[in-house]
Protein 1
Amino acid sequence: MASAGWPLFWWLVGSICIPLSLPWLLFKIFHFKKSHAKLQGKVVVITGASSGLGEALAHVFYKAGCKVILIARRENELARVKNDLLSLHPTIPTHPPVIISMDLSELNDIAGHVKKILAVYNKVDILINNAGISYRGEIISTKVDVDIKVMLINYFGQIALTKALLPSMVELRSGHIVAISSIQGRIALPYRSAYTASKHALQAFCDTLRAEVAGHNIKVTVVSPGYIRTNLSVNAVTGSGQQYGVLDETTAGGYSPQSVAEQILDGVADDKNELLISPASPRIAIFLRTVCPSLYFLVMKKRAKHTTSDKNS
Ligand SMILES: NC(=O)c1ccc[n+]([C@@H]2O[C@H](COP(=O)([O-])OP(=O)(O)OC[C@H]3O[C@@H](n4cnc5c(N)ncnc54)[C@H](OP(=O)(O)O)[C@@H]3O)[C@@H](O)[C@H]2O)c1
Ligand SMILES: *[C@@H]1O[C@H](CO)[C@@H](O)[C@H](O)[C@H]1NC(C)=O
């Protein structure tokens, strides 16, 4: 007698679910095409494009038909990424990637580099501030020089580049600034002081920027991802200024750079203000920090006790 239910079931699927989901599906497909088409031909500057997330961003924006300008210190790695783009996506109807070597911590050189950047296509449509360095250490034994170094790359370098490009965007009454922050731009973890402070600063700067430039038709997107499988922890600086040199388990077990880059592309195409790319537990931590801070502080005290500055959890 159980089979008597089946015709009714299929009738429900056929007459209700399919008609209801079809418009949604069509909307999704149409919207996807429309928002991605918007990116075709855009001039996109990506910092930290020589590895990790920045390299993955170079691929997804290039594939979307953007004219990419790739920035980092290591010119040979940028050249490798450029060659990969040309050989992996040979049919993309766009300009060959342009690479510019620059050190974001050399603040006095940034204006000169921006002249070079603007000279390529006479404008920049999207600036993706992605370059960054991480940190491992205990506050008490960390040299202030290390705090300054992290802040210089993750904060001052980004805002200097942004300020140098902003007048050209204001003049055109169009532009989009994207900042790759982190979950740690929203919540602070023990033994990450310099990093989390730099990302909190970037987040705050961007929230102010968004309000100020909205009248000039300039968009600001802050991206806060969880762990991504890159060399970020290997390249991290320790309290004494040495390279940390370890691929942490958390980083190794993180999202693939490609999947994060694709979500960023969608978020930028949709003019999202914020993009939180994260598993459930960091989301809960962000929520707790806001609605029940004392519980959050308790959890972090326990976390600090059970980990040390060189051990990661
Ligand atoms: N991996 C994660 O778990 C994770 C999670 C959340 C957020 N993020 C953020 O994602 C962004 C990208 O990091 P990643 O994970 O892809 O790490 P990564 O592989 O170490 O990449 C860092 C990039 O920044 C560039 N860079 C470093 N210092 C620079 C400087 N002084 N001037 C110019 N470029 C510089 C590096 O290029 P050169 O060495 O060639 O200069 C490299 O291309 C960072 O902002 C990071 O904070 C990462
Ligand atoms: C990390 O760096 C090493 C050495 O530069 C490189 O061979 C490797 O591909 C990098 N890994 C990632 C995930 O970027």
Protein 2
Amino acid sequence: MAEPGRLGVLEANLRQVNNRIDEAMAACGRRDRPTLIVVTKFFPPEDVMLLSRLGIRDVGENRDQEAAAKAEAVSSAELRWHFIGQLQTNKARSVVGYAHAVHSVDRTSLVSALEKAMRRANRPPAIESVGTVARSAVLDCFVQVNLSVEDRGRGGARPSDVLEVAAAIHAADGLRLAGVMAVAPLDEDPREAFSRLTDISTDVVAQYPDARGISAGMSGDLEQAIAAGATHLRVGSDILGARPPVG
Ligand SMILES: *Cc1c(COP(=O)(O)O)cnc(C)c1O
């Protein structure tokens, strides 16, 4: 028998991940399905095209150079690009050129840079395709929270700074406060880390009732994230395969 091509591999992996999502939702009695963002970092534009054929609409990237090139290369797909990596202020202008959402907003200086970039970008008032990329007049922004007890500089605002960053996003023209985002620390049970994120989300929603997003859950911990109320999952390796180790 012929080996399944790349499309078949991605289809099978996606089906598995979707089954895990179904089971995790059933286990905690959830009915609202989280948005699956497929993280395509390190994988070529051809894979993004195949994912688009398989019905994926949301893709995630963590480096601007790679994301910008991929968004440009994937010409026939109607996709929403989610920026999920640490972001320098001098990259804000490039990122608003293709991104539907930034999940890694962790300081007020970045909020200012994104606001300024959105003002210059003059994005259209309704969701529409500009060239090839689905964008809208507003940029969805999640406040990234650092859930590590010891700060290891992986990005993210300290929990005590989250409301300040949220307020800045809320006040900024062209940005929409979507909610909070986090990566579970490696040295802790993700349930405990995500439960702190849920508490932080509750504080944010108390002040900004529309900012209900919780971006949490990766290949290894999507079940725990779903149980904690994640609205956006960011899944890479369990769909695309192992990435080369990052040096
Ligand atoms: C790479 C990455 C992911 C996806 O991780 P996997 O373990 O491959 O599913 C999710 N979130 C962020 C912020 C990432 O950088």
Protein 3
Amino acid sequence: MARLLIALGVLLILQIASSNKLVCHMTNWAQYRPSIAKFTADNIDPFLCTHVIYALATINSFNQISPIEWNDEQQFSRLNSLRNVNPALKTLLSVGGTVNGLSPFIAMVAKPESRAAFIRSAISYLRTHNFDGLNLAWEYPGHNGSPLVDRERFTLLVTELSKAFEDDAKDNRKTQLLLSANVAALRPTIDKAYEVNKIAAHLDFINVMTYDFHGHWEAATGHNSPLYRSSVDSGSHLYHNINASISHWLSLGAPSEKLLLGFPTYGRTYRLSSGATDLGAPANGPADAGPYTRTAGFWAFYEICDFTTSATVGWISEQEVPYATYGSSWLGYDDQRSYSSKVQWMTATNLGGAHVWTLDMDDFGGYFCSSGPYPLVNHLRMSMGFAPKPTTTPAPTTTRDPIAEFCHGRPDGLYENAADKTTYFQCFKGNTYLHRCQPGLIYWDSCKCCNWP
Ligand SMILES: *[C@@H]1O[C@H](CO)[C@@H](O)[C@H](O)[C@H]1NC(C)=O
């Protein structure tokens, strides 16, 4: 009975939270960035996002899901142990990328038996490593393959996956695995890749990649992730913005509450080729690579913080996003102000929430921007109206102080709160978190759980 009540309570919480998702991606290549930019699952704040997506796994020649990095499985366990700290956190494994320049999805979706092999392997792998779900990151169905054929095959894959997830949950009496996808933002790509209403019915949420709208591959400066079109746009560029992209998804029948708006924690750079420095100025290639991300064409937000201290910063008011120039370098990026504009637009459009690409490009350690750890994602969380995160000094409580000191010198784990048995302490990395049992239940140290008095 107690278990049932707890389960109901959890369901209720999930129900409320489902209208407000903050999904954050992390990448397994961020561990190779130098010095203080090195990022692993240990750098994740367990209370920052509602979901964390681990990118990236691949598909092997036997059509099985498989890891890429030598330490992926070690990182899975670090990531999924964060749910001991925040039981509401959901984690998903993302599969995608390319093998010899081609998406591994192309061969896998081609035959019913190879799809079945992939689906079997995915369920078993996700369960073994304690993930809550799978994220499909095929960029894109119909690109390099056969457009209309792969569009239909992607629908088949999504439909079969969701059916198999349903069966797995029933057969094993477990919570059903979540299914999501990263999807294109540009109209011609969307039209080639997706049968929108068919896939939307089977996906729990859809991460629209509303960034990379413009970049150094173009001969004039443009913004990475503008909210609206600008007056220098013409032709197909009229649709290279968030408003046009999400409108297209909605017009094709995607339910707004399943669409998540993509928030980049990076900007895109250009090398200016004349004296002009505004939007649409002539350019020929990217600015220098950042010292930490070491790839010409984009800078992580922490690199941007360094750049903007000496650069001239401007605001593109038509598009509600900032840009910055210094010498011949031009940067279109996002900051707290543009995030706020986008959240406002997202709320007015009734979207299901936000997804962030990526945690590891925000100033996750707070070393660069003088605004504490995760200045962008924390701002996003706050703008979306989430309750404050549990902190070392808990919100109103009947327990006596000094609670914040409780975990100093104690090993990670759960502890009874002698002053109030309806609550309990959790120690994690020296921080104290105070949790409350479901109404009517008290904490029992014997099972490290809440149960009837
Ligand atoms: C946003 O998109 C809608 C639908 O395509 C369009 O009617 C509207 O003019 C756009 N708004 C702006 C400011 O571009």
Protein 4
Amino acid sequence: MRSAILISAICSLTVDFVHTSADGLPSFEIDYDNNRFLKDGQAFQYVSGSMHYFRVPRADWRNRIQKMKAAGLNAISFYIEWSTHEPEPGIYNFRGNADFEYFIQLMREEEMLALIRIGPFIQAERDFGGLPYWLLKIKPRVNVRTSDPTFKKYVKKWFSVLLPKLVPHLYENGGNIIMIQIENEYGHNELGFCDKKYTTWLRDTVQSFIGYRAILYTTDECDINYQRCGSIPKVYTTVDFSPLSDEVECFGYMRQVEKRGPLINSEFYTGWIAFWGQPRPPRNAQDIVTMMKRVMAYNASFNFLMFHGGTNFGLTSGGTFVGGSSLDTAVYMPQLTTYDFTSPLDEAGDPTEKYFEIQRVLREANFSKNTIPTPKPSLKYSYGTVNMLPVTGLLDQVPRNLFTTVTNQKPLSFEDIDMNQGLVLYETVLPGNGTAARLPLTINLLRDRAIIFLDHAKLGTMSRSGFNTTMDLLVTGSKQKLSILVENQGRCSNGKFIEDRKGILADVTLGNQTLGPWSMTRYPLNDTSWLTDMDVLPDVRTPAFYRGVFVVPEDGVREKPLDTFLDPSGWTKGVAFVNGFNVGRYWPAVGPQITLYVPGALLVRGLNTLVLVELEEAAEDLTVKFVDKHRLDG
Ligand SMILES: *[C@@H]1O[C@H](CO)[C@@H](O)[C@H](O)[C@H]1NC(C)=O
Ligand SMILES: *[C@@H]1O[C@H](CO)[C@@H](O)[C@H](O)[C@H]1NC(C)=O
Ligand SMILES: *[C@@H]1O[C@H](CO)[C@@H](O)[C@H](O)[C@H]1NC(C)=O
């Protein structure tokens, strides 16, 4: 009985395989004869929503799950992000916000089923599509998402840690996981290859741990070639498409590959990705309603992506490329810190118009029978204006002594010096022969953005997105120090340019001279504790660390401090920390995201600390505000 999926995928099955649950054991399977799921022998359809544990504070997981249930959903879909759990080879993290088993357990307590997308590649608009950065430093180069033996070795090792954790949560083992997705939109032709040996190997590896106790599936976009390449024999094929697509066409492609079984839209888009310097794309609630009704007329199961987007806390947001035939001609576009996505539950977990429309349609269709009260927006609080004090410049001696430096004749990439995220300061002494001259300085491969200093005086910025990686330098002829502060703005999350190493990847030249040797200082921007006890230095210049304190008033009524938004208007570009937690990049100078979401769970009653790492220009009055309104379209 447990092998119903495999057997039924091979031959068209008869209902004999169907578990009637007469033996009292839970079962979840595909009834190929009737194009539906059977859950404990009963016809079943899911309406699920995506929410990623790594984008929502653990303290708010239950609250968001309850709200999804109140909307009428019966399942939640989420990715597991390898880079979160194995940040360095063989070093694992499953605690706190990385504790997905607790997330699954909370879903179970709220009677929500789970659809898990285990990757190993997930895209998800995350840095390197959720793959760990350290794969990029392995020599010789690893071909990710292929049968490359080195890649498979690391995937297998990771899956041997991950999959045993999922086994007790499988539906047929008494848990709530009904489906497990392998890879992610693998059929997309941007990849330029279709390594079926790799995907069938993934299937066999997953099955070696979980057997047939959950339905394995794939998800690919609405295109027959993508569907064909992405599908894996004996793994259930599904499609994804937006409310503006043609569902007849999309389900038609799915049917060409998966002849029978329930129709599924695994990514029913409620909104879209957003980038720095570009307006956020709109998505109309009415289009969602219209497509829901059409999809429901097929008795299809579907998953809203996203139902609750959340936040790319820290430096986890990815980038993408537009156009171009090579990595160096494509336009690199970094994604926002917010992953609000204009989804039905907004970044702070509040219901929007889309939420109420979806809830109404599910109720009218009698899909949802629950009578859970509709959630109200949570209260927000303006904690007011914070006076920031400059503590130290990034180029000053104190932070330098705290951060490690490596030296090499040629500049090294972030990956080659074991740097995942943050900043690297590349420094060299210019060759001087006593004659002053104006010469072009060129960074031949810059990823992604650089601030250039000569003897610590700022000369300007260069950026890969803007294709400006050269500038004239007035060289005096004495031994001048050139400093280049390089920011990783997020590795590409998809497509053929996925191997997006960061830093300076080729020679830097001045006129016709190649510069070097280089010293490289690492600022991972993952800790601010060292700042707490530092005295404020005089004459601090940007880029610099700024510190301020603010008070969360005592309040006898509420369990926890209220959510708020950090408004860095007047500041230019940098990273903010609240009580040592990196709440993400800010860049109000280009927008559209102005404010950063600061969940109440990060705050404590009494004194709280705010640190800003401002890379360009601080606000003139050195103040920043906590406000009660989000501004994502500034
Ligand atoms: C949907 O399911 C209902 C109830 O089982 C059935 O009567 C109807 O024919 C199905 N519709 C489609 C398009 O499969
Ligand atoms: C939903 O249930 C109500 C009450 O049983 C019924 O009147 C209504 O027709 C049903 N709606 C649909 C779309 O089946
Ligand atoms: C000396 O330096 C200047 C400017 O850097 C340059 O124009 C000139 O060619 C250099 N001369 C030699 C001998 O390198």
